[in-house]
Amino acid sequence: MAIAASIRLRDFSGWWRYIVALGYLAFVLAPFFYMALVALQTDSGAGNGDFLPTQPQWKNFSRIWETVDLGLYLRNSLIVSTSTGAIASLLALGAAYVVARFRFPFRNTFRISLLATQTVPGILLLLPLFVIYIIIQHAIQVRIVGTYWGLVLTYMTFALPFAIWLLSVYVKSLPVELEEQAMVDGANRFRVIRHVTLPLALPGIAVTFVFSFLLAWNDILFASVLTSPETKTLGPGLQYFVSESFSIPYWNLLMAASLVVAVPAMILFLIVQRYIVAGLAAGSIKG
Amino acid sequence: MSIKGAAFRVAFAAGLRPWRSHRSAFPVPYWLLSPSVVPLVVIVFIPMVFAIYISLTALNQNTIGNWTQAPFVGLKHYLDGLDPRGPLAPSFYTSIKASVIFSVATTLFIHTIGVGAALLLNGNLRGRTFIRAVMLLPYIIPTFVNGILWRLVFMTDTGIADQIQAALHLGPRDTFWLIGPRSLWALILADVWASWPFIYLMALAALQTIPADVYDAARIDGATPIRIFRRITLPLIAPTLGLGIALSTINHFNNFALPYVMFGPTPPDEVNVLPLNIYVNSFITFNLGLGAAMSVVALVIMLTPAVLYLRAARVGDAD
């Protein structure tokens, strides 16, 4: 009786939900559709704002690789963003583990300063950070500005506060008994985290990976100062399509390139998608 | 397993349950903490202190060559910017107003849209997996591309916004969207489109922690959908939304890239948000001391949502 009622009541949600879903799909996809239309325009058509391409310029999708060094920027962005995602997640897991499982002096100060860090405008840090990197470079004779690891270090640090938050909640929701059992069996702290906590926290790590990846993937501000021509990422790289170096801005090529470079990020999202929701959800269970 | 609130409230309030004291038998593994703490100190904390110092000096295009010797001017930049009769006050207050309106409006819209989508996709829906994946697409478009995309959309006469508006007889084809008061709406739409999936994800995660039998019981008791939303769903996802609102207010207030790409260094007043104003002062007119002082003011303003959130989540009361 109760089952029958609940099935009937669930079905009552009804057709209007599909209308709403269609509305959402249109809202999300219309700009992509527009991007595709612009991508297929001729150079002048895109500049004139023509809506439908009179003759779809499929060759735009091969021109993007020749007009600017898109392959290099894409490779750099993938290297930097993937490293940022992986390193930020692993370091955050370590810190989150300590925050979740231990009491230590200034523990609350540390947690509150994680939120406070979020309020710092990136633009406030840009110049001082650059100067500090230059000072460190002179002091230890290691190049930071213009290298991959300088970028990764910067993005990783910006990603850490959010990643530590999320993972500390996640770790807290995991049963402590498994770890204790492993310690009793003679495992050291590193092995406990490596073989017990890490596998269990994988969904949470997937979430922090994606957030950190996107932080690096989307940045323009720091990338424009901290990259060299060889390490230029997509953020500043895509801007070349509409820069002064060409006689006209290539809106069409910019849109074609944007659609193409979205594909690797999209594949990544599809892979970790199942973890994302599970990970965020588990982070919210008070265990 | 009690279901008490969701993700980020718990992130802070996690200490509310009795502490497992037997864990303290083990030494605190600081070696796990330091790889995070050291970069945070070097890359966020020290530059921030440095920036506060710069805000007290006359570091500008004349003194940049010998920046360690930039004269100390104390609170001059703060007074210049904040004194209502000062020369810089009009531009500064315009920017604060633009930033507050932009960040509050965006936060409001993305929460409405994001929570709506989460409610929709939390229920049974044919093709749910596909729709869930599509919803995340705007989130992976680089900010620069997003800015250019909407600039094309809102281009006067040639942009699709003006063309649609003219076709539907809603307004003339030469309506200005990137200049004048409408520019605020262009900016809000561009930002909302790109950033609502974040709230959607957080809300969806929070909804998934509510067991289905709570809803079933409520329905059997004859509660209407609106009543169920107000009495069950909303209270249970409120903590997550609280953090979402705090983070989104802060992030949108600090958003430099999107307004810069859409409007460049000389934006209309309505979208001359504080980060743009700071950028122009710091890196175009090279009055770095003034730019840093304005950044510090931005930081202080943004502590408001952070503190409100911390108070609401009662962090640190229990442990």
Short description:
Chain A is 76% helix and 0% strand. Chain A has 287 residues and is mainly α. The interface between A and B is large, with 106 and 115 residues.
List the helices and strands and how they pair.
The complex is a heterodimer of chains A (287) and B (319).
Chain A: H1 2-11, H2 16-39, H3 43-48, H4 60-67, H5 70-101, H6 107-118, H7 122-140, H8 148-173, H9 176-184, H10 189-218, H11 221-226, H12 234-237, H13 251-283
Helix pairs in contact in A: 2-13, 4-13, 5-8, 5-10, 6-8, 8-10, 8-13, 9-10, 10-13
Chain B: H1 7-13, H2 30-54, H3 76-82, H4 89-122, H5 128-135, H6 143-153, H7 160-167, H8 182-207, H9 212-220, H10 225-253, H11 257-263, H12 274-284, H13 288-313
Pick out its properties.
heterodimer; A: 287 residues; mainly alpha; MetI-like fold; disordered N terminus; disordered C terminus; B: 319 residues; 13 helices; 65% helix
Give a structural overview.
The complex is a heterodimer of chains A (287) and B (319). By secondary structure, chain A is mainly α. Chain A has a domain of 191 residues: Orthogonal Bundle (MetI-like fold), CATH 1.10.3720. Chain A is 76% helix and 0% strand. Chain A contains 13 helices and no strands. In chain A, helix 4 packs across helix 13 and helix 5 crosses helix 10. Chain B is mainly α. Chain B has a domain of 187 residues: MetI-like (MetI-like fold, Orthogonal Bundle), CATH 1.10.3720. Chain B contains 13 helices and no strands. Chain B is globular, with a radius of gyration of 24 Å. The N terminus of chain B is likely disordered. Chains A and B meet through helix 1, helix 2, helix 5, helix 6 and helix 7 of A and helix 1, helix 2, helix 4, helix 5 and helix 6 of B.
* Rg over CA atoms of chain B: 24 Å
Biggest sheet details of chain A:
none
CATH superfamily of one domain in chain A: MetI-like
Distinct helical segment count of chain A: 13
Estimate the mean pLDDT confidence of chain B: 82
Fourth-tier CATH superfamily name of one domain in chain B: MetI-like
The protein's oligomeric status is heterodimer
Globally, the shape of chain B reads globular
**CATH fold naming of one domain in chain B:** MetI-like fold
Q: For this structure, what is the CATH class of one domain in chain A?
A: Mainly Alpha
- In the CATH classification, which architecture of one domain in chain A applies? Orthogonal Bundle
Helix coverage percent of chain A: over 70%
The CATH architecture category of one domain in chain B equals Orthogonal Bundle
